[in-house]
Amino acid sequence: MDLDVFRRNLKHLIDARNLTVQSFSDKIGIKSPTIYRYINGDRTPDVTYVAKICEFFSVSMDWMLGLSGADGSAMPEEVQDVARRYMLASPDDREVVQAVLKRYSRSPEKSE
Predict the structure, then answer these.
(1) Residue ranges of domains in the chain
(2) Where residue 102 falls among pLDDT bands split at 50, 70, 90?
């Protein structure tokens, strides 16, 4: 587990959704001083809070804690970049991405 990765991911997710720490805190039910301590590295999060954060942002605990990086490193850099950006996307934006990608899963005969 890499808490530096957790801190960076948490900060990026909050920023990517244009949230303040206070508004994120209000939405998730974790006090804002606690969130600030996580971001600053002054406090190690309890697993229940990590789970809450991951559920809110729709990300895996492995990714949030830096445990899944090794598996993704075998992919080309541009694919890793797309995956990182997808993890930061809002649920609405993810739906748009999925709709676009769905076009490429159809067989050529059905595309007309």
Answers:
(1) 3-105
(2) confident
CATH architecture type of domain 3-105: Orthogonal Bundle (1.10)
Return the DSSP state at 46. Answer: P
Number of C-beta neighbours around residue 24 at 10 A: 19
The whole-number average pLDDT for the span 56-60 is 85
pLDDT digits (tens, 9 = 90+) for 20-51: 999 999 999 999 999 999 999 999 999 999 99
Closest CA to 31 of 12, 17, 45: 45
Between the alpha carbon of residue 11 and those of residues 6, 38, 74, 75, 109, the distances in Å are 9, 9, 26, 25, 45
Cα separation, 24 vs 47, whole angstroms: 18
